Amino acid sequence: MEIKSLKPKDKFGKKKMPKILKIILIILLISFVAFGVYAELNNLGYIKTLQLAWQIQNQQQADQKVLAQLKKIMLLPEDITPTMAIITDIEVLKKQQPAFFTNAKNNDRLIIYPEQAIIFDATANKIIKVGPVQLAQNQQQVQPVNFAIYNSLRSDPTNAKTDEMENKIKTAFNNAVVTIKANSTKVDYPKTLVVDLIGNNPEIEKIAQAVGGQISGLPIGEKKPEGVAVLIIIGKQ
């Protein structure tokens, strides 16, 4: 009788795991660990930091490449690092400085030195413009202040006092704009009143002094004018 050889069992009496299954489990384990590490780094902000650093480095390398290209056709200062930007909204720049940006277009390079600015088309290897440029306004633009004038003097049918008051306001304040002129509901106020309609106007005392008026709240019965900051009601004094 033929005796068949018996395959030994493993140490625990179980069949050995197929090799391919082991490989799959190892891959899954590595994937789970990698995902966990990524998630943790992302939570701590490291991923975004690394991405930002990579973007900055790439941009700096691109700027240096463009600068080296420009130096081949134009003499540039060697001891100064310029500010460099890519034009992305040429229409806005043309409105701000039409003379400088007339021939520029989106994706042109703007290279700014202390003494001059250069618009450079890196694709065409062409200098578009060289000259002074100012990208930011250091002085804040003065915003207009809207006034309303109510005339309470019925003895002034031609509203000459209203025109006089308007001239007085505009003489004292360059940014004053009178948008509403009308008669008041009540008649013949004893004094000229200056009403701060927005509240906490830092110039309200100066306005009152300039027009010879008295600071007041909106009198009962008077309609609040829309879209203005200061109401002046012309009185007898």
SSE arrangement:
Elements: H1 19-44, H2 46-71, E1 83-86, H3 90-96, H4 98-101, E2 109-112, E3 117-121, E4 126-131, E5 145-151, H5 160-172, E6 176-183, E7 193-196, H6 204-211, E8 214-216, E9 230-234
Parallel strand pairs: 5-6, 5-9, 7-8
Antiparallel strand pairs: 1-2, 2-3, 3-4, 7-9
Account of the protein in words:
By secondary structure, the chain is an alpha/beta fold. 35% of the residues lie in helices and 19% in strands. It is elongated.
Write a compact overview of the structure shown.
By secondary structure, the chain is α/β, with parallel strands linked by helices. It contains six helices and nine strands.
Characteristics:
237 residues; alpha/beta; Alpha-Beta Plaits; 2 domains; 5-stranded mixed sheet
Output the radius of gyration: 38 Å
Largest pleated sheet = 5 strands, mixed
Strand line-up in the sheet with most strands: 6-5-9-7-8
Number of strands: 9
Gross CATH architecture of the largest domain: 2-Layer Sandwich
Q: The CATH topology of the largest domain is what?
A: Alpha-Beta Plaits
Sheet/helix structural class = alpha/beta
CATH class of the largest domain: Alpha Beta
Q: What is the global morphology?
A: elongated
Helix percent reads 25-40%
